[in-house]
Prior knowledge:
The chain is an all-beta fold. It is built from no helices and eleven strands. It has strands at residues 2-7, 10-12, 18-26, 28-39, 46-52, 57-59, 67-72, 77-82, 91-101, 108-111, 115-119. It starts with a strand and ends with a strand.
Amino acid sequence: xxxxxxxxxxxxxxxxxxxxxxxxxxxxxxxxxxxxxxxxxxxxxxxxxxxxxxxxxxxxxxxxxxxxxxxxxxxxxxxxxxxxxxxxxxxxxxxxxxxxxxxxxxxxxxxxxxxxxxxxx
Length: 121
């Protein structure tokens, strides 16, 4: 009943920028937190950034000062503005959310299908 759909990935040169979007849809009662993870080939999936509905944010040290996470609560959407991209940022980026569906006793964890970001000259 609930799904997350990412968009905005692509190929960009080092130093460039991309803006990722993730929209939650379905029978949603409330969303507590949304965020982004990434996974490069041969690497473990890692946290990139998270944002709660109240505006609290958290970032991985590797992206602080370069990435900005934001939310539009009315649209159930989270964004990730990525600036000064580096080859090390190349990965599949996955949207993540803690959502309470209608008829559910509490929060559940949802994942998007992922969007590829490739940083290369």
